[in-house]
Amino acid sequence: MKRILIFVVLLSAAILSTKAQTANLVTTGKAQLDNKQYPSAFASFKKAAANGSAEAIYYLGLCWENGYGTQKDIYEAMDWYLKAADKDSGEACFRVARAFMDGCVAQYNPIKAVKYARKAANAGNVAGMELYAQWLTVDVGGENRNLNESQRFFQMAMNKGFEDAFCTMAQYLFFGNNGFPVDKAKSQMYLDKLKTYNTARGYHQLACMFADGSAGMKSDKRAFELFLKSANMGFARSEYEVGLYYYNGSHDDAIAKSEALAIQWFEKSYGHGYTNAACKLGRVYENKGHYDKALEWYYNGGDGLGAYNLIKVHRKDMSQIEVLDKLTKMANRGAVFAQKMLAEMYDSGTGVSNSPSETFKWYNKVATNALYYENHSGDVYNKIGNCYYNGYGVTRDYSQAVKWYRKGAECEYDSGWPKFNLGNCYLNGEGVAADDNAAFRWMLKAAEAGIVPAMRNVGALYMFGRGTSVNYNEAFRWCKKSADAKDAEGQYGLAMCYFKGYGTQQSNSLAREYLTKSANQGFEPAKKGLQQMNNSSVNNSSNNNPFNIDPFSISPYTNTALQQMEYMVNAMKDLPPPLPDPLPTVNYTPSTSSNNSSSSKSKPQQTGHDLANKRMDETTYDGYATMLMNMCYGNSTYNDSNRLSYQKSMRDIRMKWVNKGYPFTQSSWETWNGILK
Predict the structure, then answer these.
(1) Domain limits for position 548
(2) Do β-strands 585-587 and 605-607 pair in parallel, antiparallel, or remain unpaired?
(3) Which terminal Cβ of the chain has fewer Cβ within 10 Å, N or C?
């Protein structure tokens, strides 16, 4: 027992000693920082941070942001700020909130901006109080507007003498902004209080009020004088504003434009730690046509979005080596849009060799980046789902594809493709149990989002009551939407509606018109249907069925509603999901199964288009097999001529893919001898 007590005492003493040493390191580091002993300060903070000090971790971020004792790296700084914010450092929480609010280093994300502003305010950070008070005046970021709470946090910041709070309240009350009533007397009171602060920040806020007129008069000249006064005291945000005046000029022509002076002030502002100045310099040089220099400044400011848009528009006028170098460096530092751009480049083979593995790697980094706005990730999640579905850069895994499609489909913002692909997985039972109701639900959402293939699928599902009740009016409406978008399968579905009179007046001429449009785009069932119509000995008339054979019951269709439904739905699906564009080249090793002995003639490389086309041909092949099975078991009238024709078509389809080097399972119906069961 005595030994245990001694151990506890010694352990407690050691802990207290470590805490004291850590606190002393932080104090020493701050003194070294004040004395501009940057390398020593960085070393002190690093040692204290290793002991878990939130304050030291925050100061490490500050060192990385400003280049104190280390190279300047805004993304490294953000990593440390996030770590410190997780330990409830008020200063770090404020900087993280600003990053998500400004949308430069991190992607704009109001939800996270509010979250960290609230944490900063509750931790006693005065700038966080003022920022959180602003967010409480609007319904955004998951917080409901609460003007009483907003005013309380503004008052807390003002009680601590924070100049920005006096300025913001004076502006709100002068103009009646953000739900506050106009109260010019109270606004003047806050203005008078602000004038007593002879500080760089105070002059900056006064300048803002003269710039927007909330000081009682609008004067660019007076605003510029105050910004310049603050800038000459080294206030980075005022240096930036002075640069803006020189770059844009003033409304009252009191300040003459000077691009050279503007660039000088922007560079000075960036040198004093205002990252937005580097982003602005990127735009200045982009407008001048100096694209490589613009990329350098976007790189310095961590502006992945600026770099992304620059390269999107001007890649051909830039050094491709420089583009790849800067993007890779930015992406490795955590720049979300640089990661996204790299994924797109490796996907399409633009400026780099096409690489499925690099495509998957960078899209995956975007999706897991803490600086990315999850609700805006729908299409990135969809890309990852496609990679898993197609085995593109990663082992094929339908369950993983479903997982990512679902994440994308449930995002607040997406193009609709994740919903479409998730619907297809439910339709086929790939990676998830087949569920027609779920398939219809997601397809309908995708169609409503404007995805054309989903429109035709919804039309087919309504037509045959799969996952929903039969509704010919809705079937016609959705088939027409896709047909109007020049979709071949949609035109085919619309032709069926006109021929059968589904949801519209029966019209043979319109059925022929849309069959022709579909056939002209290469859709095989439409070609065969049109050929049957053209071969008919009966001319087009107003009769309900002027043709000897229904063009929608010829192979691979049958006359039974169930089989018609199955083929219609399969024929009107895009399977597999949209492949990368341009489509990848894949190596293929043929199967050695007995049914595919001739596949040893395989070609060494096949394009991704083959994967989609083969799926469609397999569906057609299975349709012929179903026709023959129905003949065999008496579900449809036996016709020997048709049997031989169907079997020849099956053989032609199978050999087409065998000769390309793909395995293709032969059905026993391809060699059926015609004996009925």
Answers:
(1) 451-578
(2) antiparallel
(3) N
